Request: fold
Amino acid sequence: MGELRKDYILDKYVIIATERAKRPDEFKVEKKIEKNGMCHFCPGNEDQTPKEIERFPEESSNWQIRVFPNKYAAVKPEGKFEIRTDNSFYTFSDAFGYHEVIVETPNHDEVLADLSEERISNVLKMFKKRIAVNMNCQNIKYVSLFKNQGEKAGTSIQHTHCQLIAYNDVPEIILEKEKAVKKYPYCPYCAILNTEKNSFRRCFENNSFVAFTPYASRFPFEIWVLPKRHLLNITDFKEEEFVFLAEILKKILLKLKFLNADYNFYLQYGIENVHFHIEITPRLATWAGFELSTGTIINTMTPETAAEFYRS
Amino acid sequence: MGELRKDYILDKYVIIATERAKRPDEFKVEKKIEKNGMCHFCPGNEDQTPKEIERFPEESSNWQIRVFPNKYAAVKPEGKFEIRTDNSFYTFSDAFGYHEVIVETPNHDEVLADLSEERISNVLKMFKKRIAVNMNCQNIKYVSLFKNQGEKAGTSIQHTHCQLIAYNDVPEIILEKEKAVKKYPYCPYCAILNTEKNSFRRCFENNSFVAFTPYASRFPFEIWVLPKRHLLNITDFKEEEFVFLAEILKKILLKLKFLNADYNFYLQYGIENVHFHIEITPRLATWAGFELSTGTIINTMTPETAAEFYRS
Reply:
């Protein structure tokens, strides 16, 4: 069983997921091995995944979206979820939680950018549903929903999918954001949104959302999407907001597809005050020793240039 | 000219280094182009680098170590170094500082692990010298010294080298560590060192240093090296401590060479209280959407297994 562990003195957590572990020798970098053609995420191979959680449309034999537990789960709903401390320096719990896979399309060769706005909007509604379900599970403190697209973004499985990890800790990044937000007498994200939509960093805008490249972008082509309404989570979206988000998301992802850029996207939502946002981070650069030693990131592209690219 | 920029509300800094910028189209991922055979870091090509800062042995035509400014510097000693704020959300300065390259050997095909302990110790002494010089430069708040070994660790140049970036900000990670250290009535790193050298995570030990895989390792095979004396910086090392550090570093790097593992290493040193340490982070895994959305890292290997590998 894996463990959740905290750094000795910092509020940095690590999940030690032994069930995904390789033996040391297996890390030895060798020439790439051609992958077996069989895809476990394709229709017809449903029996190769852990037991299905749900599908869309429900009970249809021609599913468009399919959700099941991750076979190589980083967290599992078993063991001791309480985070505790032995001597002064070892703070830990079992790696407790739920780890789900959301397959966005039955078609092996499609990527999310290829789907119609309607289908993307259905995927977003599935996010809402799975987040809501997992947030209500016992001993779950936060639900992370993210997509890893391509090898440089950390995925090993080609068939397009998202992942959800619900676990027993409120993430450091969310706590930091909550803390920072409290310093303002108003929602700083609302203010940022209003500032950036009149700046050179504005990329896309519709009735409900604004997309812009953030002022201190950490990655080339990093882009954020925020709802104009002060919403904490996707679970608070109105019907039409899924459609408007799908529209903007498709525009962004098509631009990244043009670049052949691997990317991550992930939801950032509040537990108290943080305004919901999606961060999309193409992985065209590598964080290296300087980033790891300082926390300061070197980005080789201005967000203003990136915004021009998105608008072009 | 580049800029140093802070996230809207978090104390996270980014250096926007426009002189390293590519045009958007150039990020398009294409098949690898064979690299030109000419290496600017090799003897005979000294005129291809910016003006030499120093070499070891001094004034020798057969240098073993050579230091010069980075041709594609992320920071430069020009512009406005003061960090200031426009409206509530844009905090910035010019990307001010010094960016140096330290070539560790004249031999193109050697890596740091191949050098004798004596030569590694000379490289470490060069670190000390360059850190001391840069710390005394005006408007410099911190000097980061790091190595990127291999493509996955963020380097594009094969000839083995380290880098130094001196800049106008105390890094977030160092501030966090300083803050965390202050919570203890004693040095927590001294206590950690004494705990870990009796644990399953101990890897190597000699008169002056202990190397262990940290309890909450963020990377497979992550390993830290700490001096037994409570030292804040490499600038405080005694002569013999360079030799003892070289001995342990060589052992670690030879293990990583066996794995063909790309890696970063970087010095972490205190501005007030943080006990000096070196963190060595092999890059055999990719931080993906979950890490970026939460700050929580998934590591697929226990540090106890990694320590066994180092000891074997």
Notes: The longest helix of chain A spans residues 239-258. The helical segments of chain A are 117-135, 172-181, 188-196, 239-258, 289-294, 303-311.
